[in-house]
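hey so u asked for the seq, here:
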Amino acid sequence: MNWYLAKIVFRIICGDGNHTPQFDEQLRLVEAEDDMHAFQKARIMGDGEEDNFLNNAQKPVHWKFIDVSEIHLLDNLTDGVELYSKISEVDDAGKHISEIKDRSKYLHETCLQNTFQMN
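ran it, structure tokens below
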């Protein structure tokens, strides 16, 4: 068996859908014999995770599975191996860096709290 990284894409539709289109791209680890089996397994995951519910404003939300857009064989699962990379362009580099630093600080603080709560 092999390990694959699969990108599963959902469209998020709130209310009547009259809003900026939203998509959720999820990276999933999939164990399969080959890439075709990994692709099919990832599709089954996506189909099974479509959802409909009401949000806090009592408006319907629909998570619609679009498809599997990428499959990558992971040759070696070793510490520090790169699993995914995405290059993006932003309008304000300073703001983007500041947001990353804020998320990192929050993540670090949460990890510290969780560590001390476990002891």
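DSSP finds two helices and four strands in the chain. The first helix runs from residue 35 to 48.
lmk if thats what u needed
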